[in-house]
Design a protein that fits this description.
The structure is a homotrimer. The first copy, chain A, is mainly α and about 500 residues long. Chain A folds into two domains: about 5-140 and about 175-230, no CATH class; about 235-494, Hydroxylamine Oxidoreductase, Chain A, domain 2 (Up-down Bundle), CATH 1.20.850.10. Chain A contains 21 helices and eleven strands.
Chain lengths: ~500, ~500, ~500
């Protein structure tokens, strides 16, 4: 740990060199933040400058209250008193709610924590944090880890095999392999193992020794017990709405082959026009004016943003529960089904008592899913956004087709499941682990890759080539024929 | 149907709110368009503002005739009288040629149609419409639907399978599954089933009930009998040349694995530089000055655009028959062959009387394909564009290599076809449907995915990694070995 | 060959038309370059205008010496005398070192060569050329062609198969197929076959007849014996640092499935933010100021560029040996190993005397690889760049995870190799060519595609979905199970 004297010397050096600097730092910072900046502009300049170009660095929270509510980026009913007169700097986030963070430590005389969490952001953005907590993203870690079936899938995917003649023998997954795969997006559990010494440009310092860090998965379990990482989408240290409105942000996780929202968007007319026109959009304006600020939607426009016409009539309410305008759940599971009531989907039980929203044959769970009435009202909310550009007839034609596709893909997955059951019956595979043998791999790909892709392409206004040959009908049907061959070949042997 | 009184009230409300609006709408619109705008700026603001930022919204067609012919974006010999003094607004397109559109209906007192077609665009752009009609794109629906073999492929790809022990039984494709797959790009047949009532913000209104709508496939068959959708590339409601000149527009259909023009372009030096430099290009200028307006070609530059040097010397003539500078056809079929004379390729017959430009062994059809002389003159036209940046030696080296690749891929497809025939002979697959069994899937992938990709990569100046491991030589050769194993394994059994 | 009279006439015509031109050409060109420009602005306008917008066209090399050394783009200790007073034009590059280029020829009275090489660029950029020559890129041709095992792989991948009942018979690869695949990126050997006549807009002229041209592979062997093509990254004829700093440039070769650096970057938080923010970056500034000129790294920032803070403190030294900050080699080979000391990796020998850095079981070569001390100092160099934005703890957490992943993927490849050996033993495949049979294809994919992808995703700060389902753990483990089935099925037969 540095002594105050060493710290003072470093500060003096930093101050001296600052005079020579060309980069403009904000003046209205708290004293604590000023201290952070003096050293860190030298030791981690990239994040200091990134922040220095952000809205946080130049705006006092109370300034939002001089403007109409619809234009505000903060949802607190009044300005946070502790920040009054100051912009939002390093210490405002890293120095908050000291007692609640297990990774709080003394750093150069200041009590700070490493991992800033939704509980910290909540000071200015309580509505967003509360909405987010309801949704599937905040629960993304638990939805895998607390679901026995999905945990088995994670362990199988991120595990391995060793050759012990005459067989391969399964090797369990490690924390690292799970962290680099499923929990990379779903979020890790970040815990404090104690303190550790690290070498820095200022010499050796002591910092919390964090397990499963770094990670910015959407359902990260933080050292203060909160869930989620706002930085999944509002990347540090700019924390901007511009970043989050770009589809590339969502694309970090929503990717082929298992959740190809980005790939399908990219191949749709919406995505095609986004690529062409994005430089002309106003990415910054709040609320977001359809046709003026943007002429084709990004993920945010349809699913999250406050979208208005140029007279501020609201077409879509902002929501940080990103499923709020969705009625049918089309991915991540074999069969489509009504959206769950709670984002904690691991609590669902199908009629076979499995932790799934449907049975292996597609029957929906008796409880915990949206009622037809709730589904209808969600569809109305989405339609209102579509209607910003498309007439009702267009929208109805689109959704009628989608309804057929949803049913057709469920039927094809039923065929795949029948083949797998037949294979289990005939000894082609062993049902103990439904994810670890060639026939089961084919089964999983029918729904997790192909049926999902077809449904996405349908829902998101069309990506025909994707749904045909890339990861769609061609692939799903071929896989069914491969499964038949595997099941039948075994039968022939006997 | 709304009464005139309700309509008047809506208009009044719209006019009142317009005063509060920040968005600038053009003034020189027809009375009919003004009426459209008053309501639709409120009900579908996105498309109104999109149009309001377009060239159509601010330019009277006659203005084109004050400028040199080479800079014109319209090809009519003189300004259309009906539009004189007015910009091109809603009613100019949706209100044209009323008698010819099966989807014409009375909407708030105006006789309009939903689906604007090439016949409407023809008023100002007759040369483009005529060129387009000659090409393969305008005929893209018929080229599948009127070709018995390709229809069988469509039905197989977009169909499904049901497990009826001891076999999978084929399920026929539905209109919806064909629409979301092959006909998504090729175009659907949009027909009028009658009238239907839809709920809108103005209450219930009656509109045509359109089948297979929405769709903007390149060969869409419209309610007026015309073929094509100009909006495939000039997306509504901006209808810009800028959109169409971007490769992302073409990429919506020309995608891996079956027609990977975009993917190959992306991985070529041309595409790599496009990604880096696109923000500096002048996407708007007509004609398009090579080296000044753009420093690397997009799809449009090589295949469609009017490309000139900075003294307006023409390097490439504009054409909306996008095959006009092509001599050899390299995709969509097992073997390469001279480009067809007519875009209606379903009329071709090979020497085995199949509706294909070559036999299953690669022999070209006796009629309907370009003569060697016509091929040579097309190559000259393309070379002239290449020569804008590359010297003759470079170009000849490039095309000599391409000629070898074309022959080599045809040879590899011949091997695949020999294996499939052998498999048919040995009972590994049944030739009745050449697209529905595992051995046949492998055969199709050898040409539709891999040989095509290799040819594209060669033609489009190189995408080496793509042509090696992504979807190329590695994949094609591995597939041949898989086919051999399937054919041989069966032989061993007997 | 044109007579001087014809040439003079062409020049006069060119001069006359130049007056009508709107494009501004630089004035401070040599007389020779002026002559080039007069004709070529007419005959290959694209490259003339591309150059005319470049730094070369407007900057005299001596101007660099009026500025601080850290801002210089040229590394010669003093300005090249021959270029004094002139910008760098056509003749400065194509007319250099006449005697050393086998493709030097007389062109309109000037002695020039077609293929500009690193030896030419060396006049102003000697440090870059020297660094480049040390690395793997300059040796990329030899590293395949002089390595018996990799040559066999190239020949197998780019070769083919012919069906001669009852077997497929291997067909050797051609120069063209190797050129369009592996040597497309690795570089071809460009040789002069003699002279040839080509038809140009100026009539027939005689030029060198170049074999394996065009190509801009990184290890191209040039007609002057030098290795490399600076245009791989600094594309002709702009030759800019802006192009090279964009990830798209690297992405032309570093692509999935075998070397998915681009794909993994694209799916990482770094790549996601690059896509969002690239328009705001200063791509031009030298040195490159972290946090100000760019807020997320591109390939160049971590691996090549001179990166500084805003007081010009150096975080990363510029290097054109792109492995200079790397300690462990993670791709292109079955097992990870310490980076080689020399870029000429074909000279390595493993303990089984194969031309590989490790044995088939992963044991590293006794000589020619970095020592642990050298590895440690490279890691320090990379860490210093990471530290520009991330604290030590973050960086250590990241690299600790990476270390585990490196070990785990090596273990999985060992399993794959054990299965292949078992298959060889049981007669499932023949070890003579380890790359040409289905079991061997699976083996190669375990390391060249999947283990590589997992390692890349880990090294480059995370691309979880890519490393899970796209080309990662899921795929690697499934492939192991397929190999087991192939090996076991054969065993069952006997």
């Amino acid at each position: 740990m540095k002594t105050p004297l060493v710290l003072a010397a470093a500060l003096a050096a930093a101050l001296a060199s600052a005079e020579a600097s060309g980069l403009d730092l904000p003046k209205n910072v708290s004293d604590e933040t000023a201290a952070c900046l003096e050293c860190h502009r030298q030791y981690t300049p990239g994040i200091v400058y990134d922040w220095a170009q952000s809205r946080h660095a130049w705006t006092k929270p109370e300034a939002a209250f001089d403007k109409p509510a619809i234009t505000r980026r903060i949802s607190a009913p009044k300005p946070p008193e502790a920040f009054r007169g100051k912009v939002v700097g390093c210490f405002e986030c890293h120095g908050q709610k000291t007692g609640t963070h297990a990774d709080t430590f003394d750093h150069m005389g200041f009590s700070i924590h490493v991992v800033v969490t939704p509980k910290d952001c909540e000071t200015c953005h309580p509505v967003e944090v509360s909405q987010y907590a309801q949704g599937k993203k905040a629960n993304a870690y638990d939805n895998l880890a607390q679901n026995a079936l999905f945990s088995q899938l994670v362990d199988t995917v991120a595990g391995g095999w060793e050759w012990k003649d005459p067989h391969l023998v399964a090797v369990r997954s490690t924390p690292e392999s799970r962290w680099e795969t499923c929990y990379g997006c779903h979020g890790t559990v970040v815990t404090v193992r104690g303190m550790t010494k690290v070498q820095t440009a200022m010499g050796e310092i002591e910092v919390p020794d964090l397990a499963n860090w770094p990670n910015q998965g959407v359902g990260r379990v933080n050292p203060d017990g909160s869930k989620g990482a706002c930085t999944s989408c509002h990347a540090r240290h700019g924390f901007s709405i511009e970043d989050a409105r770009h589809p590339h942000t969502c694309s970090q996780c929503h990717l082929e082959p298992d959740s190809p929202a980005w790939n399908v968007y990219r191949d749709s007319k919406h995505g095609n026009l986004y690529e062409v026109r994005e430089a002309e959009f106003d990415w910054e304006n709040v609320p977001w004016v359809i046709g003026r600020d943007f002429t084709v939607p990004t993920c945010a426009a349809c699913h999250m943003s406050l979208v208005v016409d140029d007279k501020n009539t609201v077409l879509g309410q902002r929501s940080h529960d990103f499923g709020a305008r969705l009625w049918v759940r089309i991915f991540g599971l074999p069969y489509t089904h009504p959206q769950p009531l709670s984002g904690a989907t691991h609590t669902l039980r199908n009629t076979d008592s499995q932790p799934l929203p449907t049975t292996f044959d597609g029957a929906p769970a008796a409880q915990g899913l949206l009622s037809p009435e709730d589904q209808a009202s969600r569809k109305v909310a989405m339609t209102k956004v579509c209607n910003g550009c498309h007439n009702r007839q267009w929208i109805e034609g689109h959704f009628r087709r989608f309804d057929v596709t949803v049913k057709e893909t469920d039927t094809l997955v039923r065929t795949a499941t029948a083949l797998m059951r037949e294979g289990w019956k005939r000894g082609v595979a062993d049902p103990k682990n439904p994810f670890d043998e060639p026939l089961e791999h084919l089964w999983l790909e029918t729904w997790l890759f192909y049926a999902n892709s077809i449904r996405y392409a349908s829902a998101m206004t069309g990506a025909p080539d994707y749904a045909t040959f890339k990861n769609g009908w061609w692939n799903l049907n071929n896989t069914l024929k491969k499964m038949e061959a595997a099941v039948t070949r075994e039968a022939e042997k006997r």
